[in-house]
Amino acid sequence: xxxxxxxxxxxxxxxxxxxxxxxxxxxxxxxxxxxxxxxxxxxxxxxxxxxxxxxxxxxxxxxxxxxxxxxxxxxxxxxxxxxxxxxxxxxxxxxxxxxxxxxxxxxxxxxxxxxxxxxxxxxxxxxxxxxxxxxxxxxxxxxxxxxxxxxxxxxxxxxxxxxxxxxxxxxxxxxxxx
Length: 178
Known about the structure:
81% of the residues lie in helices and 0% in strands. It has nine helices and no strands. The longest helix is centred in the middle third of the chain and has 28 residues, at 74-101.
């Protein structure tokens, strides 16, 4: 092996090995943000195991997107990544459900419903509305911060919030009257 081959191999190994500073930074982010991201993921998914998987996938994406995080900020980038991953999973799961629905017997229940009427009402909201409600009331973000996290205008956030609150009032109002 000549000197240029040895140098080439050393640089290739350096590319494949994670840098210590990136791992340390990811560890700091993980320690500081895991619990809030897990709560947000649970709010999006309604399932503890799916929420944990979603957060872990987000941290993998965060490690790979180190340069993008610097430009956007960790919290906004993490939440935007989480929403995008959840949307992708939701689409994939929806396609699987449709495919399985053709194979299932009529009247088959796909799984248990949440016990709490408020939680059921929140889960019944369309994805965009549920995400806005989660970011506003669960993560306590302002309309501008939500818009930044989702990559939409504040007008879109306001519209989604208005529709979500209208839907929740209708759903919960019907329950309290009965």
